[in-house]
Design goal:
mainly alpha
């Protein structure tokens, strides 16, 4: 052996941290064969066996099967090629595990029935094309007949969920809930009503910029009143109500009377649906966007103030 030191199987076990049984197994598989045997028949290994065993242990820890490991250590397969294939396989497993984790987390959090769990599992396993079809069906139900209007084409795009190729467990869980909402017939009808109100021509009491205007007006006028602790049923809320009515009346081109008040109430009640805000929050998670601002508190304050005799 040209003076090379030979090691017993016990020495090899101490140097590599592997058990004697594991080293014997790798030797019997031909992955790390002994360099020679002693006159008494004991296995003896050269110094290269230490490096070979350490490589084998690393490859096993990374999940490679024994036939592949043997070809790598025998230099029949390039390590880089094997690593790339293994990384691709692991990426698939990680995506699958994220989906399973999301489903199980949702089931535990909701206390779901077996039927609900089955639905969530199927929603989590949808392909990209299937997810697009599901979202497309929802948007068709909501915007059907209005796609040619440039306003709605842009809105529809902004409401389209796009789960990334490698989503987090949080994104998968959000997608599951979002998909359930998209298939909710009552929710579809509610959003359709919201869109139809937005789409009404000015001759029917709507205005192209009213929806955006209402959101801004409620946030800018009612928000500070809410933050200041002004009660919606108090006389102090009166100037805020008057300002809201004046903003909407100017947009509609009408006097700030009872008709405008009723119109504003209807618009805010439509926008107050908690499912709509939930959809927007889930959409932000799925698409990796910042969480949208919640208008629920200021919408509620405004509605209560508009209905209050003291504030009006």
């Amino acid at each position: 052996m040209n003076g090379d030191t030979l090691h017993s199987i016990g020495d090899l076990a101490r140097r590599t941290g592997l058990t004697v049984k594991a080293i014997r197994f790798y030797a019997d598989c031909g992955i790390v064969p002994p360099t020679q045997r002693s006159p008494a028949g004991y296995r003896r290994y050269g110094t290269e066996a230490v490096a070979r065993l350490e490589l084998v242990r690393t490859l096993r820890d990374l999940g490679l099967d024994l036939p592949t490991i043997r070809r790598v250590v025998d230099q029949e397969l390039p390590l880089a090629e094997v690593a790339a294939a293994q990384a691709d396989a692991l990426a698939v497993q990680i995506r699958l595990l994220r989906r399973r984790h999301a489903v199980l987390t949702a089931v535990a959090r909701r206390g779901s029935t077996p039927e609900e769990m089955d639905l969530m599992h199927r929603l989590a396993q949808l392909t990209e094309d299937e997810r697009r079809r599901l979202a497309g069906d929802f948007l068709d139900a909501v915007f059907g007949g209005l796609h040619t209007d440039p306003r709605f084409a842009g809105i529809a795009r902004s409401l389209t969920p796009e789960l990334p190729e490698n989503p987090t467990a949080e994104q998968v869980e959000a997608w599951i809930e979002l998909a359930e909402l998209c298939q909710d017939v009552d929710f579809r009808a509610a959003v359709r009503r919201l869109v139809e109100r937005y789409a009404r021509p000015a001759s029917e009491g709507a205005h192209p910029g009213l929806r955006r205007h209402l959101v801004a007006a409620v946030r800018d006028l009612a928000g500070p009143a809410l933050a200041a602790g002004i009660g919606p049923a108090s006389a102090e809320a009166g100037p805020v109500v008057a300002a809201l009515l004046a903003e909407v009346a100017a947009t509609l081109g009408r006097p700030a009377g009872e008709e405008v008040r009723q119109h504003l109430l209807e618009e805010l009640e439509t926008a107050q649906d908690p499912r709509w805000e939930r959809y927007l929050r889930l959409l932000a998670v799925v698409n990796g966007w910042p969480a949208p601002e919640s208008l629920a508190p200021v919408l509620d304050w405004s509605l209560r103030a508009l209905r209050s005799p003291a504030a009006g």
